[in-house]
Design brief:
The protein is α+β, with helices and mostly antiparallel strands. It is about 30% helix and about 25% strand. The chain has helices spanning about 10-20, 80-85, 120-135, 140-145, 165-170, 195-200, 210-225, 235-240, 250-255, 260-265, 310-330, 340-345, 350-360, and strands at about 5, 25-30, 35-40, 50-55, 60-65, 85-95, 100-105, 110-115, 150-155, 180-185, 190-195, 210, 275-280, 285-290, 300-305, 305.
């Protein structure tokens, strides 16, 4: 794809063009001491000069001397809360004189343009698309919002200490799934389009042809970001986790794990949910509400009077084995995109990469699985 160049001082024109095209622009902003996606009224609201320092159980922002808007890698959220909402009313029922009257809740999608998504985010979006949109029972709320989405992705120029997207094949370069793609340099942005919609937006910007020096610099930043990363075992190795169900290390992890579900909340691919029926005090109206759930919840495995996974070690094992191993049978790949969010936002600093290595390092016990 041909790369063009957009000067730093003209970034506001990209925002302006998206707004004129009828999109609400969503971008990264510093909020609650983290990088969060929120409505972006002007490019001045971008996190200029900010980057995160992430480690197991730790996430801190620091302001650097440089003036770049995308010097960070991730925050605690990606696209998931905007497409698979934490809470969604599915239908309502009214208790009338003629009996119960059920009413479907219609999706209310918005035309959203996201700026700043990374390769790991786009890989997660592809997995969520497979889950929510493939097959005969597509999620109508997810589909409606997905069809109104425009994506301006950004290649990573550095990697946090928690990043391992090279191992999963999902970064630091975004290769597909975007309408526009930016590489941030000190004096501006290399820009390339990935769709007809993206090309139409780009055609309205004051672009110049990218120089060989600029392309070389962008490629060098990507290469440097790749070298900074940690290494997760390969998918073939991770598939062996199904043979490690009785490994003693599960109990060692369980003694630290709080079963809080933070990892599943920040994970951009987790999609567990539950449904609750809520009514008013007069019992005249009821709503069926879908909410995020977690396989770390004790009630998540409750079936006909029994909790199938009563202990934390069972729940952690279910999450990790499904995410890294049996997910491959469902979607043809691991369910992990290497973003490292679960590592940074675990309150007791459990490190997914280190746990996977520990479970694969020794031979599994000889006894059967019971």
């Amino acid at each position: 794809m041909t790369r063009s160049f957009l000067a730093s001082g003209d970034l506001h024109l990209l925002h302006q063009t998206l707004v004129q095209a009828g999109f609400e622009v969503i971008g990264p902003r510093v909020k609650d001491d983290a990088i969060l996606f929120a409505p972006l009224n002007h490019v001045d609201e971008l996190p200029w000069g900010w980057q995160e320092q992430a480690d197991a159980g730790s996430y801190r922002l620091q302001h650097t001397a440089g003036r770049r808007a995308f010097a960070w890698n991730t925050g605690p959220q990606g696209l998931k809360p905007w497409l698979f909402q934490p809470e969604q009313v599915l239908w309502r029922a009214d208790n009338t004189e003629e009996g119960l009257c059920f009413r479907a809740v219609a999706p209310k999608p918005k035309r959203l343009a996201f700026i700043g998504l990374r390769g790991c985010d786009l890989a997660a979006l592809n997995i969520q698309d497979q889950h929510f949109m493939a097959g005969p029972y597509a999620d109508r709320f997810y589909r409606a919002q997905r069809e109104q989405l425009l994506i301006v992705a950004v290649n990573c120029a550095r990697s946090a200490d928690t990043c391992f997207c090279v191992s999963t094949g999902d970064g630091p370069e975004a290769r597909s799934g975007f309408d526009l793609l930016l590489d941030e340099l000190d004096d501006g942005y290399l820009l390339q389009s990935g769709s007809d919609r993206g090309a139409a937006i780009a055609a309205q910007l004051p672009l110049k042809k990218a120089t060989g020096k600029q392309v070389t610099e962008a490629n060098a930043l990507l290469a440097g970001a790749s070298r900074q990363q940690r290494i997760m075992p390969s998918e073939a190795e991770l598939a062996q986790l199904v043979d490690r169900l009785d490994h003693p290390h599960w109990q060692q992890v369980a003694e630290r794990c709080l079963a809080c579900g933070n990892c599943t909340s920040v994970c951009p691919t987790c999609f567990c949910s539950k449904q609750d029926t809520e009514g008013d005090i007069r019992n005249r109206q009821a709503e069926q509400v879908q909410r995020w759930d977690s396989c770390f919840s004790e009630q998540h495995s409750y079936i006909t009077g029994k909790v199938v996974r009563p202990e934390i070690r069972h729940r952690y094992r279910q999450w990790l084995v499904h995410k890294l191993a049996t997910w491959q049978q469902q979607f043809g790949r691991s369910g992990c995109v290497g973003c490292g969010r679960c590592i940074a936002w675990c309150p007791v600093a459990i490190d997914l990469v280190e746990e996977a290595r520990a479970l694969l390092a020794d031979k599994p016990p000889e006894d059967d699985h019971g």
